[in-house]
Structure formats: C-alpha cells, structure tokens
TrEMBL record, chains A, B:
Name of the featured protein: Glycerol-1-phosphate prenyltransferase
Superkingdom of this protein's organism: Bacteria
Keywords: Lipid biosynthesis, Lipid metabolism, Magnesium, Metal-binding, Phospholipid biosynthesis, Phospholipid metabolism, Transferase
UniProt-listed InterPro entries: GGGP/HepGP_synthase_I, GGGP/HepGP_synthase_sf, GGGP_HepGP_synthase
Species: Nosocomiicoccus ampullae
GO molecular function: heptaprenylglyceryl phosphate synthase activity; metal ion binding
Disulfide bond in keyword set: no
SUPFAM superfamilies per record: FMN-linked oxidoreductases
Length: 224, 224
C-alpha cells in the first residue's frame, strides 16, 4: 500500500478543517491522506472526513483508533500496534477484541498493521498507550526485532508533535533492512521534510496542518 | 528452516536420556531435533545435549528458554513469543532484553521467532508466561492476527502434555493461510501422530520421549 508513498497528510477527525484547505491538501502532490487521531474519534467525524475527501482522487486510508469508528469506503485500513507499551492491551489486546467482533467481515488485503514505536513522552498517544521511553539500546532492539524477527512490512516511528533530529532518524533508518520505515511527528516546514526525506520511506505531516497550514502544504513541494 | 520438517523430536535439557536412546532418535526418520525446555535449562545441560546430538547428521536447533543458556553451534535458533499472555514481559519483553545484550552478534538468518499460543492451562509454560486461555472466538482472532496481519512465518500451537483433538487442530489449520503451522503437545503414539498429520505442517513429539520412549520413536514411522 505504501510502496510509492513518500508524503502523507494525516487528518484528525476531531479537528476542524475548512473545505478550502481540504481541497488544497487533496489536490496537492501528497501521495495519501490518512484519517486518524487519538481522542474524540467518532463514527460521525470519520464519516464526515470520508465524504469530504472522497470528492477528490487522492487515495484515502483510515488508521483505526477504536472499534466504534470503523467505516467502510476507505482504500486501506491501518491498525496501530504499539511495541513500546507496558500493557498488552495497547499492543495486541484491543486488536484481538476488535477481531472478535469483525474478523468475519474483514478483507485482509485491505488491512495492514503498523508496528508503532512512540518516542515523544509528552504526546497523548504515549500516555494513553502506557508507553515507556526506550533508551538508545532498547530502541535499537525494538527496531531490530520488528525488522529482522517479525520481518514486519512496516515500522512506524511516532514523535507526535515533536520533531526527531535528522541524526536520530538516520541512525534508526540504518537499522532497518526489511521493513518500510514511516516517520511522523513535528514536521512543520518544507526544509524539515526535505532533511528527513532520505531517511524514511514515508513521512507524515499531521498536526501542522492545524497549526500552520501554509507551511504544512508546502512540504508537498518536496514530493517528486 | 521448517519447510520440509514434518516431524520434530524436542529434547528437554533438564531431563535425562541415555546415549542409546539418543542414537535411536537421531538416526530415526525425524526431520529435526530441537533442544528446549521450560525449567532448569542451563548452559551446561544445553551444551551436553549439543555435544551428544552433534555426533549424528540430524539437523539440530535450539529453542531459547532464557539468555543464560544461549550457545553457538546449532543449525538454527527459535525464539518463542507468547501471544496469549497477559504480560508484555513474556511477549516481547524478555526478547528485547536479550537483544540488548546480543543483537550485535546475532546472525538473523539463523534466528526465527515462533509465535506461541499455549492452550494447556495445566502446563508449566502456561503459568510461567502468565497466559490466559482463549475462548474459541479469541483463539480464532489470535490465529488470524498472527497469520493475516503479522503474516508471520510460523505459528505454534502448544498444548504441552495434553493432546489436542483432531477436530480442534483441523479447525485451527483452516484459519491459517500464510503461516507454517506447528503443533506440539501430548502426541504419544504413531496413531495420534498420523491423525493430526494432515492438519499441521510440523508436529512435535516431546514429553513422551521421556515417558514412553518406544511409542515416541514409532511416531517417526509416519514420516515419508
């Protein structure tokens, strides 16, 4: 699904965005729009974004936050599985519960898990998923385990709201051999996107859509 | 590693076996000998089995029980990752700690993780790994998650000491599309092996080596 996806705009269904801004995002050079958030994600606000983005030809995926906002009609579904959590519930636990309810109607070709490592202690997802902050050695082990032992299709480094240094992203990328590396968190400008572009297959621009729309939009100028 | 492995003898380093019996196992039609146990696995007793089995040409693998009994010289290394545990420690936790210590010297081509679902509440591994017994629906979800979402190379159904019914193994095998299904637990006779053979790529004969050697040995007559 993400093979040629360099740039993602991630829209939070709990946040407001105007039709004009949505049109600019959808008609930009972004490769994919992903709908997903941490809090207050409901059937209604997901459905609203689905309907509004579907007017455009840009591919559209849903990242599942909970089981009561799962809606058909997206091109693909991503399920986050947090690897640096202390609680099985936020690793596979909620996923197993969701499968109990939905596994008979799921088309698994349209669904991928995203192994998450969340590195920003101050973000909501970190606290909600009862994460621990890995030291450098443990981070290396987590990445290596996902990449070399699970041979996961994807690995997602999430710094939600906080920009990772180019050096740290580079050192993570050097550990990855099998998995497609996705980075998200704190990218606000074209320059920040450009600097990190060599070190992740996919970069996600999210929060800055809501805090500094013009600069967020300009990150797509780095897409070939 | 397990592509053409129909039959495994699993030797517990904490249990005694005579040279004569070891020779009969090693020169039987078994495809692989795996060294692995739950309690009292030490560097000494693993090394002892390694040296004694290495006289024969049968392939030999180590299933890691802890970090202080990891020894070079095996053809392959398996790392159990328990999926029906309530505690991250027994899922990825111990593995991450082990990687902190060893990841720089590991040849990942020689190492595979084995996603375990342990279904016998009375066995030592179940208690030690703080497992829960999944109901049928949750078992289906666990198997489906490992097979369709993790797209794991292997899935290991472990009933240690308790024989699974042919019907249950059949219904599990029908859920599996991508992963190589391994079953272990309670197989004591050739007939029990034969009945389950169509429903798992690999069947493991373990405890019965120590309780009823002659019948355990005869299970290899089912290997083509």
């Amino acid at each position: 699904m993400l093979n040629d996806v360099k740039h993602i705009f991630k829209l939070d269904p709990a946040k407001e965005i105007s039709d004009e801004e949505l049109e600019e995002l959808a008609e930009s050079k972004t490769d994919l729009i992903v709908v997903g958030g941490t809090d207050n994600v409901t059937e209604d606000n997901v459905l609203d974004l689905l309907a509004r983005v579907r007017r455009y030809s840009v591919p559209l995926a849903l990242e599942l936050s909970n089981t009561h906002s799962v809606i058909g009609g997206f091109d693909h579904y991503f399920i986050p599985v947090v690897f640096n959590t202390t609680n099985m519930k936020y690793h596979n636990g909620l996923l197993v519960e969701a499968l109990n309810e939905y596994h008979e109607i799921i088309d698994y070709d349209e669904v991928s898990i995203l192994p998450y490592i969340i590195l920003n202690e101050d973000c909501k997802a970190f606290k909600k998923a009862e994460c621990y902050l890995p030291d450098n050695e443990t981070l290396t082990s987590l990445v290596t385990m996902i990449d070399q032992l699970y041979k996961s299709e994807y690995i997602y480094i999430e710094c939600s709201g906080k920009l990772i240094s180019v050096e740290q992203l580079k050192s993570i990328s050097e550990l990855v051999n099998n998995s497609h590396l996705i980075y998200g968190g704190g990218i606000k400008t074209r320059e920040e996107f450009k600097e990190r572009k060599p070190y992740a297959e996919t970069l996600v621009v999210g929060n800055s859509i809501y805090s500094d729309f013009k600069h967020a939009l300009k990150t797509t100028n780095e897409v070939e």
